[in-house]
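Notes on consecutive records. When two proteins share a document, each keeps its own sequence and its own token line. Never mix them. Below: protein one.
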Amino acid sequence: MSQTIEQKLAELGITLPSPTAPLANYVPAVRTGNLLFISGQVSIDSAGKIATGKLGAGLDIDTGRAAARLCAINLMAQAKVALGGDLEKVVRVVKLVGFVNSAPDFVDQPKVMNGCSDLFVEVFGDKGRHARSAVGIAALPFDAACEVEAIIEVA
């Protein structure tokens, strides 16, 4: 018998946090048909501390990967709430769009975003494999190191 998503998260030592409330005029997730669109989630931990700074100007790739992993955890937390607490309703992670707070000459955004992508594949297996964009950006809200949004097919 295969593991449930909750069992896989527990095995990885991940407890999904209660999602943060929107800080502006938007909703955290919108479901239309069988697609769930999750608003961008920044690199904030369960204690409310945001991983901040620019990649290539004080932050290295490993730190960026850890920040992107936090974004993945927050995306999963938002998905869980939007799906009534049942992540088993995830059919496929369709697309991730990652924004990496980058110094002008930083070009390793895909390596940073692997922190998010790798966790989705670890947790969801093949249905966690997705299309993706990794974009360098001059600034993010709260000086967050990363922000990631998701499109997820759901049952």
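Protein two starts on the next line and is unrelated to protein one.
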Amino acid sequence: MGQKIFEPGDLQSSETFWNVLKLSPRDKLDKFAEMWFHVFLWAFSSYLFVHLVASLVAFISLRKHKIARFAPILLVISGVVTPLTMSLITSSAIAGVFRAASIGMSPLNAFLFGTGQTLVNLIFSYTRILATL
């Protein structure tokens, strides 16, 4: 009927974590798996970086507290679990739209979409917490 969105061999062996973070592929990403992989890795790594910095600040601030010194562990766990669920879905949606429109995505666009997800999540997190006080 229609063209398959995902083929099992779409990701090349040269698509490693470090190649994605270096923005090394200079050609456009035209397959769903390539686009999804690049956007997801940027979202995951930027989200994890933000949570590692936050947990480091929390650990330094709470190091003398008897119980709260273990709170940064929850921040790191949250920094892994949230992107595995949220970024997995949104990266799939972004890659699906680009693939359905037959538009190639550059690695720079994947970087902007991935880090943009983290930025939007941070903005919503900070604005919602003030409403609960």
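For the record: The mean pLDDT is 81.
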